């Protein structure tokens, strides 16, 4: 994890439960006597996230329906911190592509660095929930939830078009693209995960809406589309970035960026045993 990540040494569950008492009902005792939570239970992960946001970032009243993806806060913080290394910390404006119902990246960008953030969303239900969530959330006095602007993407065939307005300038864009290429692929991956964990396997027992988990062509095709579309906005954006979960997707993306004569870099990020990275690219103005 990033050196500045508050969560690099794990969680203090006792401290978190003092800040967010509902968390205590989700505690479990492992065989070694260690107190933890059930990370396969969406309600438990949601309670942990609410506690982390309240205790460490002063974000109150964050919530999410249990059938949506509840994002792991430490890895989301890591992306934000690495972006700060890339573009700086002060007077920054960013765009989160596909901000989701949870709106987590704009919230963290504002809470940690007081960035101005735009969050785009293509799913009407997620957009509506994020809009209502923004009205409920409170932050420390030095931070403004009004720094976040939400925009609905009416054209499912576009990513940046209709979202980045004429004359607008962004220091960066960020994106956590859908991982899978189909529902069947997502179900099979989840079954393998549950089998490895020794859990009962069902057809579909994981949290997350379809648009959060899969899209045609999966992660690779989505980012290829993003790269292609980014050329038209090269004068308005400093760095375009996207998480890349599958390392094997990188060569084709690098080839595409080289062909477009873009400057790019791969930024590694590790969270526990999980290895990840994001790709960042920019064009000569």
Structure description:
With 285 residues, the protein is an alpha/beta fold. It has a single domain, classed as Vaccinia Virus protein VP39 (Rossmann fold), CATH 3.40.50.150. 36% of the residues lie in helices and 19% in strands. The protein has helices spanning 13-19, 42-57, 73-87, 104-113, 124-136, 183-197, 210-213, 218-230, 250-259, and strands at residues 27-29, 35-37, 93-97, 116-121, 148-152, 170-175, 237-244, 263-271, 274-282. Strands 5-4-3-6-7-9-8 form a seven-stranded mixed β-sheet, with helices on both faces. The chain is globular. The model has no long low-confidence stretch (mean pLDDT 89).
Please tag this protein with its features:
two-stranded antiparallel sheet; globular; alpha/beta
Q: Structural class, from helix and strand content?
A: alpha/beta
Contiguous uncertain segments of 5+ residues: none
pLDDT average, as an integer?
A: 89
Q: CATH superfamily membership, which one?
A: Vaccinia Virus protein VP39
Number of domains: 1
Reported CATH architecture: 3-Layer(aba) Sandwich
User: Can you count the beta strands?
Assistant: 9
- Which percent range describes the beta-strand content? 15-25%
Q: Please tell me what the overall shape is.
A: globular
Order of helices and strands: HEEHHEHEHEEHHHEHEE
